[in-house]
Amino acid sequence: MSYTIKSPVSLKASIQLPASKSISNRALILNALSYSPYEIRNLSDCDDTEVMVRALNSNERDFDIKAAGTAMRFLTAFLSKVVGEWTITGTERMKNRPIKILVDALNALGARVEYMEKDGFPPLRIFGSALQGGEISLAGGVSSQYISALLMIAPLMENGLTLHLEGAVISKPYINLTLQLMEQYGVKAEWNGPAIRVRPQEYRPVPFTVESDWSAASYWYAMMALSGNAEIELLGLFKNSLQGDAAGAGLFAQLGVGTVFTDRGVVLKHNGNRTKKLNYNFVNEPDLAQTFVVACALLNIPFRFTGLQSLKIKETDRIEALKTELRKLGYLLTDCNGSILEWNGERCEPQAHPVIATYEDHRMAMAFAPAALVRPEGIEIADPQVVSKSYPHFWEDLQKAGLLVMDNGELTMDN
Q1: In the prediction, which pLDDT does 10 show?
Q2: Are residues 62 and 175 in the same domain?
Q3: pTM (2 decimals)?
């Protein structure tokens, strides 16, 4: 199955963005740890959040979280402190996404987590019990989800947790997001230098509303950058956002897109500025990398992006996927050290009828969709249903904005 997306005469939309998956999944864990009677408002309806909801509301002991990496990390830590015996598994891709760092850390803190198949990877068997806690060290370059998973259960460990982060810390905004949400639920942490300390404390239940997703907003920013005639309003975004990906607004200003904050969200405007080359370290915003790689190439803006080391262990190896799919469109990218991706303007012969593979990765589909605005023949995206992982209504929202979304030549809904 594939969709072909074609450009409208003009792009005009007021879009209610999906709720933040990052905030939703953290809030679900914190809600459970605080035994909250409150239902979280504006909870994301994406796949990753739905598997979390099912697991937390289930009386089962065996969990299949499918392709939800956040759920795998967060639930592994959560279940390790819930008395009982549990198993957790996922898709074949999930069974090849490493989790040894988190498992080793949990076991060092008093947990008992075992591998059911291949050492270092899911599926896992978890024997939940009270955790002793204490002090451990982790490389700062590991996924922030490992760190967040440990931090959220830290106040319920007998001795709390002191986490020493060694070397450069990647994805700091996601760690800060976790700590800020923990504070909203009544738990304070101390982050001094390389050490984060969480003393034994109790969470308190609070009413909570999830803000809209800045990662999802990035695809609309890309469409604005690629469109000469567009009016786009994005609802539910906060100026003082907890999300690290809010930094995308400032970065898109270099690609010609200005941001006007209102009491409803943001209005995008062309600002008349466009850099000749973009250099940026995405270590704090890795989920924006695909959007900017594709947008810069289509805008003919050479780039050098660093800090991409976590992309190789996402839903797919995103560095290789970007190189492969942009080559189909005629762009030759190079990578270095597993953490740098760049384009110096080098082109090749594009495929006559390229179909963008998505590799079971929602962000591949959404990052390439804006290409429809600069390609007269549009862009064909394979396996478009992958967007349900974080933005289930993405294709419907494109159609609301005036783009044509066709399945085998037929419109997917009335325009």
Answers
A1: 83
A2: yes
A3: 0.80
